[in-house]
Amino acid sequence: MSDFWTQLIQYTDGIETETSDIDNPEHLLSKLLTHAEHERELLEAKFNPISIATKENLSIVSQLHNGITMTKKLLEQHEQLRIQECKLAIELKSRENEAELIAQDFRTTVKRLKNTARIIDYLHCLETLLTYSSALEKSLSAESLDESLSIYSKLSRLTELVHDTSTEHLRAYSTNLALYWYEELKTAIESRMENVLKLIEFPYIRKMPPNVVIELFDINRDILKQELAYALKLRLPNNVKHDDVQSRLRFIGWKPIPLFIHMLLKGFITRFNFHFYGQQKTNDRRKPEWYLNQIITWILDHDDFLTKQLQPLIDEFSDVSPINVKVEFIRGLIELIIVKIDSQITSILSDTTLFTHYIEEILIFSQRLFEKDIDYPQDLPSCMNLLCDEIVFEKWFQVEQDVSRAKLQNIFQSSTAHQSVYERMLERNPDEIKISECAETFLTLLHAMEDRYRHVPYPSCTLRLFSLQVDLLDQFLNDLKDCLHNEQQDIDPLSKYFCSILNSIVYVADVIQQWKNRSHYQRLQYFHEEYKIFIKNNGMDNFADKNSNQIDIDSTLAQQFDLIQLNKKNDLIPASIFDHLLEQYRDEEEKNCSIIVNHIVSTLKAKSRRYINEKWSAMPNPKDYFSMNISSSAIDVLLELQTTFANLSINLLKNVSNEIRARVIKQFDEYLFNRIINDYTFNEGGAAQFLFDMNRGWSRIVNDHFSQLFNKCRESALLLTMPIGSALLLVDALQQDLSLASLTDSSSKDSIVSSPLPSALHEMGIHNLSEFEADQVLQRRRDLTNC
């Protein structure tokens, strides 16, 4: 069969498989025709270049052709526009260059106009200054102070305005002009004020009756008020600095002295310069107290005039800030002293003895200023500020350090260092009599040092001087330790020497404890905490050891720290800076107390062997005695205890003596309980004798106040001597409670010992023995063991 027919058969077979009704020839033929038509369309679409789809897209191609044609036209138009743009840009550039030349000419013209305007303003300002100057000259010639002060006020305001400009020469000229006329007006007002002060006979160098002073003041009150008004109106421009005090002496908080105070001080300044400068005998460099005392005298002599006459007059000027006349007057006098000392400071620093004398006199003077009758504010500058100058303060600190350490060394070199300084002063209380010379002298040294730096104005300087105080406290404790350790032979803990050292430690520790709550040291603690924060913020935290007693102040940051603190409100906080130091003193106190206690207890143990070994189980019945006596073997121990306690009361402070006695009694009570009660059995006679010894011997020796401290032995004696019936009932109750306790927790004997006391023991006055101990004591009774 040919390939054609083979393919035809395969083609028809494929159609038959797709047709379900192959038995119907018409339907099969229709299917063949449909399939053939479909195949023809596929072949036509494949081989005919102009297919049906292509015909449908002919319209789209036509549209694209039209779009391309239009685009070409637009590109041609764009090219023409670009050519026109280039032509316009070239033309615009040429016009821009022309405009820049015109603008440059315009700016030059404007600059010239501004310079011309500035010159006109400059000349106008200069003309105004000259006009004011000419007007001031005329008004002063006519002695018209009201007009002169009014013109000067305008000149002052203009000077302040000129100060904000860049005209250097005009600023200098206006400032100099203002200063010139200020001095001229000041001279005129001073002359008038001097005449008024003569009328009231001020200053009062020679004492006058108060009624005369008041009468003179009342007569000339209106004239003085007028002159004061002139003085209060005359002020320098804000930008002009006063030159009345050197800049380096303008301490923190300094402000100019009011003009009328300067006028009041003129007579004092003249007298001060006459007596304390030049060739006068009163100008003795070795006697600063002469001019310091003179200043105090002037302040006190003029107190009534300043506070009762002049202050009410100044208060009437409501248009000026409040002025405290007395304080400003004192400030003016203090500046005289500061300038005087500063003029001699170089030679003073080179002579340590003279420098020390100056320090003492300045401190006395400063303390006198702060007393109630003068009442100079502590926050205002004083001579103490001069002592805080860096060079001066370093010298002062070095002198304080050298002198204090030398004095501390001399304290212990004295042959009477550990003897009482008040022993012969019967009016002193017993505890004060026991204070050693070294402790009293040392604390006097510390108090004197505190008085010296109490009024130091700058926190950094105060902290440095306080650090020296802390160092001395630390050194004093070490020296006391050395006194005990450097002896060639062992020291008897009960000796007066040993007790004196212990008293010194306790006394100084108690003083430190009191200082923690004093405002002075609380303020220092606040400064110390603030300084640690300040140092940390500046990246220089060197407070590594919290338990250190040392206080380090960085001098490079001191002034910055002072400025911050003086502008802040200071809080008072507990002085924890003493905690580590106080702990060292208390540790040494405890150590020495333990030495004494151990020594006494050891001695008592050695002397109590005969008493412990008494035949407690075979002693006669107390009914056989006419009267009972203390055991003869206990007498030596009792005498030793009595003598020891008496010596402690004589040699030690009361609170220390009481503490040692209590500890000795407690330890010896425990020792007797363990060695007698727990180791021996007691018949009726032994129990009665032990109770008698407790009541008439041990408890009497230690006085009524300490009778309750022989607790275990005393309560054991009560249990040993109680009636046998009561004892049997108590034993049964204790056994029952102990059995219940053992069922609850039988892990250890400790649980029984620490169990709560039964009410039966409390009713019998037994409060210090546990159930187990009470049961063990009762088991020591021979009359119960035989039952």
TrEMBL record:
Origin superkingdom: Eukaryota
Cellular component annotations (GO), alphabetically ordered: Dsl1/NZR complex
Matches recorded under InterPro entries: EXOC6PINT-1/Sec15/Tip20_C_dom2 (IPR042044), RINT1_Tip20 (IPR007528), Tip20p_domB (IPR042042)
One Pfam short name: RINT1_TIP1
GO biological process: one example: regulation of ER to Golgi vesicle-mediated transport
Protein name: RAD50-interacting protein 1
UniProt source species: Rotaria socialis
Lineage: Eukaryota, Metazoa, Spiralia, Gnathifera, Rotifera
